Hints:
The chain has helices at residues 9-33, 43-57, 67-76, 83-94, 103-111, 117-123, 127-131, and strands at 64-65, 101-102. The radius of gyration is 20 Å and the shape is globular. Helix content is 56%, strand content 3%. The termini are far apart. The chain is mainly α.
Amino acid sequence: MTSNNRVQGGKAFGMLKQQQENRLEEINQEFLSDEKYKDEEELEEKLVSFKKKYMDFDLNDQGEIDMMALKMMMEKLGVPKTHLEVKKMIAEVTGGVSDSISYRDFIKMMLGKRSAVLKLIMMFEGRGNDNCPKPLGPPPKRDITSLP
């Protein structure tokens, strides 16, 4: 049996990611040609950014973000959520018809007028974290008289 016919490891992962990117790019093209979004400012740049974010969190490369992937996404963004909160976020994005977020749902949410919780978190990702230095070491000891 020769191993030339089978692709493994990093090369296989790279091929999967390329296929995924091609699928998402096709969907981006649908949105670019959709009359409904023709007045959206910087649509092409936004779609490129959305595609990159989505690919970062589509952990199973199935073209959707499931509950565990969204939970990990929120933790990575510094906004951990409970399972129930994550379920509610998915229901809000999908209208309750799915337990995972497709790329189309993701784009519609990000371009939509409604302020979904996930949209707000994605838009403000990193903005609050850059200016606040993380405290180092244990908190200083305080007594009751030092409280305001």
